[in-house]
Design brief:
The protein is an alpha+beta fold. The chain is built from 10 helices and 8 strands. It folds into 2 domains: 131 residues; 110 residues, no CATH class. It is 57% helix and 17% strand. β6 and β7 form a beta hairpin.
Length: 250
């Protein structure tokens, strides 16, 4: 969740100038699980230290922990007194000091990169860098998610969610402010469940209907689905059912 001071004109101008000076954070740390390199917190701090100081900007990060989640509150400050603040929550892999510490360390790095727009410098200078997801994008996504969950159908929710990158979807899922985390995640999961429940039921019924040649019953199943749901069901049925449905030209 993002919050700001009443006015952000000066800090916005300073941040724009700062971003013009910042280079990418060097990918100097090894990720043994994916045999790749990534920009660790030290690289991020090195990339932002001088540009921040040159433009009257500074930041503080405060670790937070609640139930099975941990993260950081990041506040970007300007000499004018204006500020921008964002909170990033992440699930804790193991409920011990190491698990909480790992989540907070990752959150520190990701929150800083997001709020400042720091890209990770690619090892290959000719490669195209992926755009950094900003705290503002996550906050807008969180507000959109709340609206879609509350007012749209399960199918419309899933179509919206599939339009997001996996990374942005995960950040939005973890973006609820403290005190609303569980309710938001439960509502998200419930919407997904409402989408898949009739499709799983149809998947279970189709083999018997196909085997008996009950084309009218199969047509009734698909008549209750929209185009998006129809395509999803076609992707999860068994091969025999898929062939039969294709021959029916559904």
């Amino acid at each position: 969740m993002m919050m700001t001071s009443e006015n952000i004109c000066d800090i916005a101008t300073a941040l724009s100038q700062c971003q013009g000076e910042m280079g990418g954070a060097e990918k100097g740390a090894d990720n043994p699980f994916f045999n790749s390199k990534y920009a660790d917190i030290t690289s991020v701090l090195k990339a932002i230290k001088e540009p921040l100081a040159n433009n009257g900007l500074s930041f503080v990060q405060m670790p937070v922990h609640h139930e099975n989640e941990a993260g950081v509150i990041t506040r970007l400050m300007h000499t004018s007194g204006q500020w921008i603040e964002s909170t990033l929550w992440l699930p804790v892999g193991k409920a011990d000091a190491q698990g909480v510490g790992a989540a907070i360390t990752y959150a520190r790095r990701y929150a800083l990169q997001s709020i400042l727009g720091v890209p990770a410098a690619d090892d290959d200078d000719n490669a195209v860098s992926q755009p950094t997801i900003t705290a503002e994008e996550v906050q807008k996504g969180y507000l959109k998610a709340r609206m879609v969950i509350a007012h749209e159908s399960p199918s419309e929710f899933m179509q919206w969610r599939e339009g997001l990158s996996e990374e942005l979807s995960n950040l939005i899922y973890n973006a609820a402010p403290r005190g609303k985390v569980t309710a938001f995640k439960d509502a998200w999961t419930q919407k997904e469940s409402e989408f898949w429940k009739p499709l799983k039921q149809a998947k279970a019924e189709l083999p018997g209907l196909v085997s008996s040649g009950a084309t009218s019953s199969i047509e009734e199943i698909f008549a209750e689905l929209d185009e998006f749901e129809t395509e999803k069901l076609k992707h999860i049925v068994d091969d025999v059912s898929a062939t039969f449905i294709a021959e029916m030209e559904i």
